[in-house]
């Protein structure tokens, strides 16, 4: 598989890199992670993902900042993987000093252009030491949709220990393995996502750093995430939430502690591929046109794994200017602006960004009223309306 964020121009085709993509389950510590790691400079210094493009996500992060400020009343926070400033901005609005760490220059530049304090770097223990000298220790460290993206997790956790005040809070959001398995979200398994988290695996991991999870909340983002609250063991008053025991019970019920669960998942993935191709080919045989919507990582995985090329899906519309006029890695389907996509009046739109189906379909009422249809690939293949 190609790295899913590496959208490329025609000149890039000959030097395109492909890497194995295999996922493994440890029967000892129950941790699920990739076996093959692509270097972080390859993955993150030239990706094209902008969080603030999604209204749903922007609203989510604004509510998130409100909750943290109300509950923990921080004066200074640091965000790991701050991207275009999607969470820094609402913190700043609430009067909190918010510092972002973001290694991708072109994405960090967007954050800087909003006058948000942004350090262009990977978060590591050594960066944390420099930051303590510069700004002192912080009340809260946040890390959203980035904890899964880190190969050297111990280094990051040592950095958290260095930078966090004694009674500080480490909060992160990450896609939840329960949702990945239940909704067959194999399109979320890609090189950028190195780890796939359950509470079962996280709890003993934090113990290694004398830290404890004291609350977990399930979140709808990325089609099923968890917000995890961590503190130094015994550092703050307050009970350990019952949510943790409840989720551990759910994980055991789903068999996340057993290899056979993951073998069954992989069988379901293979049969999904066969069914999806069948549906697309049937539509094409009727002489209809299919285009795609949302050229993110999910799209790269689904097209490359299912071998969907431009003869099935002619092109893909995306509202990120960084992806437009480029090609999807591997399968080389052209990416166009959404205006261009709609000008062509497609019969069907294959919704790669199915996790935003609600938001997207609302915007496309006129397309649907005019007879247009969406193909939603996951969690179950459906054609709407
Ligand atoms: N926090 C945002 C962005 C998530 S995408 C959100 O939740 O929407 C992950 C981001 O983390 C990317 O912008 C990527 O460049 C960045 N990143 C990857 N590895 C990192 C690391 N080691 N330290 C800090 N940021 C990292």
Description:
- The chain is an alpha/beta fold and 385 residues long.
- Helices cover 37% and strands 20% of the residues.
- The protein has 14 helices and 16 strands.
- It has helices at 40-44, 55-72, 88-93, 105-113, 125-135, 153-163, 177-182, 199-207, 242-254, 259-285, 297-306, 338-343, 357-363, 365-369; strands at residues 23-25, 32-34, 76-80, 97-101, 117-119, 138-144, 164-175, 195-196, 211-219, 225-232, 290-293, 316-317, 335-336, 348-351, 373-376, 382-384.
- The protein has a seven-stranded mixed beta sheet with strand order 5-4-3-6-7-10-9, sandwiched between helices. The chain has a six-stranded mixed beta sheet with strand order 13-12-11-14-15-16. A three-stranded antiparallel beta sheet has the order 1-2-8, with no helix packed on it.
- α11 (297-306) links the parallel β11 and β12 (316-317).
- α5 (125-135) runs parallel beside α6.
- The longest helix has 27 residues, at 259-285.
- It is globular.
- The two termini are 33 Å apart.
- The model has no long low-confidence stretch (mean pLDDT 94).
- The structure holds S-adenosyl-L-homocysteine.
- S-adenosyl-L-homocysteine (SAH) is lined by residues 44, 47, 49, 51, 57, 80-81, 83, 86, 101-104, 107, 122-123, 144-146, 149-150.
User: What quaternary form is this?
Assistant: single chain
Major beta sheet, strand line-up: 5-4-3-6-7-10-9
Report the principal-axis shape: globular
Structural class: alpha/beta
Q: Can you summarize the main beta sheet? A: 7 strands, mixed
User: In DSSP terms, counting alpha (H) and pi (I) runs of 4 or more, how many helices?
Assistant: 14
The helix content, as a percent range, equals 25-40%
- What string, H for helix and E for strand, traces the elements in order? EEHHEHEHEHEHEHEHEEHHEHEEHEHHEE
Rg, alpha carbons: 21 Å
Cα distance spanning the termini: 33 Å
- Low-pLDDT sequence parts: none
Q: How many beta-strand elements?
A: 16
Give the integer mean of the pLDDT values.
94
The distinct ligands, each listed once, are: S-adenosyl-L-homocysteine
How much of the polypeptide forms β-strand, as a percent range?
Answer: 15-25%
């Amino acid at each position: 598989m190609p790295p899913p964020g590496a959208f490329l121009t025609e000149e890039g085709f000959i030097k395109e890199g492909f890497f194995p993509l295999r996922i493994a389950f440890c029967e000892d510590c129950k941790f699920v992670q990739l076996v093959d790691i692509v270097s972080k400079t390859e993955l993150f210094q030239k990706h094209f993902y902008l969080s603030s493009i999604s209204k749903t996500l922007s609203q989510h992060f604004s509510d998130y900042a409100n909750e943290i400020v109300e509950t923990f009343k921080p004066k200074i926070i640091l965000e790991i993987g701050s991207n275009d400033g999607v969470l820094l901005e609402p913190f700043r609005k609430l009067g909190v000093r918010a510092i972002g760490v973001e290694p991708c220059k072109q994405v960090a530049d967007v954050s800087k252009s909003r006058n948000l304090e942004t350090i262009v770097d990977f978060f590591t223990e050594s960066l944390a030491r420099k930051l303590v000298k510069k700004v002192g220790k912080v009340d809260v460290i946040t890390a959203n949709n980035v904890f899964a993206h880190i190969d050297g997790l111990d280094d990051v956790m040592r950095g958290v220990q260095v930078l966090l005040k004694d009674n500080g809070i480490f909060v992160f959001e990450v896609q939840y393995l329960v949702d990945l398995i239940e909704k067959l979200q194999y399109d979320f398994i890609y090189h950028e996502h190195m780890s796939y988290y359950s509470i079962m695996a996280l709890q003993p991991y934090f113990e290694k750093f004398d830290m404890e999870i004291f609350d977990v909340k399930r979140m709808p983002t990325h089609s099923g995430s968890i917000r995890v609250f961590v503190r130094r063991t015994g550092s703050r008053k307050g009970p350990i939430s019952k949510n943790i025991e409840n989720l551990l019970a759910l994980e055991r019920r789903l068999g996340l502690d057993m290899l056979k669960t993951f073998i069954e998942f992989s069988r379901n993935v293979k049969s999904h591929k066969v069914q999806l191709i069948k549906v697309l080919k049937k539509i094409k045989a009727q002489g209809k046109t299919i285009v795609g919507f949302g050229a993110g990582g999910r799209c790269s995985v689904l097209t490359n794994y299912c071998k969907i090329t431009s003869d099935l899906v002619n092109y893909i519309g995306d509202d990120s200017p960084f992806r437009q006029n480029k090609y999807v890695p591997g399968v080389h389907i052209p990416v166009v602006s959404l205006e261009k996509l709609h000008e062509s009046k497609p019969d069907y739109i294959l919704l790669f960004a199915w996790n935003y189906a609600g938001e997207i379909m609302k915007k496309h009422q006129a397309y649907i009223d005019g007879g247009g249809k969406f193909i939603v690939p996951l969690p179950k293949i459906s054609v709407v309306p």
